[in-house]
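thought: fold this chain, then report.
action: predict
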Amino acid sequence: AMSDDEIAEAIERSPDAVAQRRANRPQRDTNTKMNDFVVQLHEKHFWETVQRSLLKEELSVFENSWASLYAQFVHQGVTATDEIMMKDVIIEDILLHRALEEKRKIIEEIQDQENEMDRIKLIPMANRTQQEVDSAVNAHRTVVQLRGAQEAYTKEINDIKKTKDGKFKDLKATRQERLKVVEESGKNIFALIKHLDERKQRESEGRMTGLVYEAARIKQKELEEYTTFADKEVDRPWMTPESELVHEQKEADARADTEIDKKT
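observation:
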């Protein structure tokens, strides 16, 4: 690979510019991958439904969340079921943030109305105008209504959060279970391969042991017979108690056969 100085000289740029470009390259590569995930998202069958369900600014949030979640799971493989579950998790997350934002607006409105009530309270009763009295009454009524809405949003937020956490838990559990099955399958395959290899090895070693044993047995039988050596001596090189018994039995059988032949 060329150095920064060599590249700078070749393209007539400064080494610092080349170094900076190298430093920024990984981020650009990452951004390219993220953009690829977004492009793939736009080709999914559910993308049109997502577009109709969310606000324009929420679509950008969905795309970014999708790319991040996909990048997290892609190295382990992503199925169509995973994609549907990912979509549902992101939708719930957006709905959660939408409800949180609405609750924030309600809290801010409550604060404004309470500030108005506090301002009017500082005015002596005798000096208050009818408009200020009506404003205080309306502010109090508005605060009561807003607190009811705030409570409703709090319940909705808790429900959405519970649903989102459940869906994300299901997503992780589904993937972990599938990966566990794949992992166990891999273990079973490797165990089977190992078993077959061991069996083949045992068969090979068994055949080799049998051949060696048979060769030794044949050679032993040859050595147990009388052999004429180069000096014309005749002898049996292999002599053991067992071989002597076998040899004596053969000689006895031969003598018996000879006697029988003579008598017949």
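thought: worth noting. The first helix runs from residue 4 to 11.
final: tokens above.
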